[in-house]
Amino acid sequence: MMNKPLDSAALECAEKRNWMEIAGRYRGADITRSIKELVITAGPFVGFWVAAWLSLSVGYWLTLLWAIPAAFFLVRLFLIQHDCGHYAFFKKRATNDWVGRVLGIFTMTPYDVWRRSHALHHANSGNLDHRGIGDIQTLTVEEYKARSWFGRLAYKFYRHPITMFIVGPAYVFVLQQRLPFGQFREGWRPWVSAMGTNFGIAAGFLFMVWLIGAGPFFMVHAPIVLLGATIGVWLFYIQHQFEDTYWEETKGWSHEDAALYGSSYYALPSFLSWLTAHIGIHHVHHLYSRIPFYRLPQVLRDYPELAEIRRITLWESFDYVKYKLWDADKRQLVSFRQVDSTL
Q1: Cα–Cα nearest to 296, from 101, 100, 27
Q2: d(C-alpha 189, C-alpha 195), whole Å
Q3: What is 92-146 written as a DSSP string?
Q4: Count of alpha carbons within 13 Å of 195, Cβ hemisphere only?
């Protein structure tokens, strides 16, 4: 399924604008608004968590129902942490850092480790020569064909929806982020970040176990964390893994083109867009990452042509899961079926 192409007038208008300069006008945090967003995210998260716990006396099915909104608000807390990592949520760098570190305890994400890898993702998104840090592994058709049958099978296993959206998120958030083995070159800072987050998580878990008991705590918290991880990975996946995305070698790579054409506008229903902190307006976020999430919709209102670039609806997005390999000749992602038929 292809994204609907822009009509010629809209495309010409889009190509003539200096989008980096335009997006930069929306940078800068509104402190009152940022505090409000933090409160109206943390408050409901706690409220839904408590509701899930209280419902244990009624039936676990009700607990799992309450876990769904709690997971979405956990994702929203992560996206506030994400804005802190871009120094977009507060005016002072130190405030962003310390709020991000505290939120990392709740999201189980060591802030300083994640911030570095995510910065590399922004710096190299869509660059074929700099894949593998802070993104989802994507092979080209040629690389896939050059692998042994076992290598192709391993890649298929990695890109299978069960691995990608269930096993993978659980592994990343529960285990991988506890020990930043991939960042030895960065010295002691990643380890201090990870160990500090781990200590905070352990202290929080021990307190809750003391308060309500181990069984009730993990029965409530585990599904919230696992569902939140799946939602987060799905959002990240669909923001870059769609059929006519953008990949280019370094010599032809452009930050603006990678942002506009390699990041989607995930046109979610308004309530889901709010719950996910408007991260679906991802092409604008990649254009200028220091725009607070609550200002992203204003960019689309002021420049509606942006709402037609790489637009993906909720229902369309499910079809993009089948695209796994970059075909440099077609300049689009293709499915395993399309490539395996030629082997």
Answers
A1: 27
A2: 10
A3: SHHHHHHHHHHHHHHHT--HHHHHHHHHHHHHHTTBGGG-SSSS---EEHHHHHH
A4: 6
Residue corresponding to tokens 């030895």: 184
Torsion of CA 276, 279, 281, 287, to 10 degrees: 170
Q: Is 97 exposed, middle or buried (0-12, 13-18, 19+ CB in 10 A)?
A: middle
The radius of gyration of the chain from alpha carbons, rounded to an integer in Å, stands at 21
- 193 CB-near residues (< 8 Å, 6+ apart): 101, 110, 111, 112, 113, 180
Residue 1 has pLDDT above 50, yes or no: no
Detail the DSSP E strand segments found in 184-264: none
- Mean pLDDT for 172-183 is 80
- Could you tell me if 227 and 67 are in contact, meaning their C-beta atoms sit under 8 angstroms apart? yes
Q: For residue 323, give both structure tokens.
A: 């695209």
pLDDT band at 184 (very low <50, low <70, confident <90, very high): low
Q: Is 62 exposed, middle or buried (0-12, 13-18, 19+ CB in 10 A)?
A: middle
* Predicted confidence (pLDDT) per residue in 105-119, tens digit: 999 999 998 998 899
Phi, psi values for residue 124, rounded to 5°? -125, 5
Q: What is the pTM of this model?
A: 0.91
Beta carbons within 10 angstroms of residue 71's beta carbon: 22
Residue type, 287: L
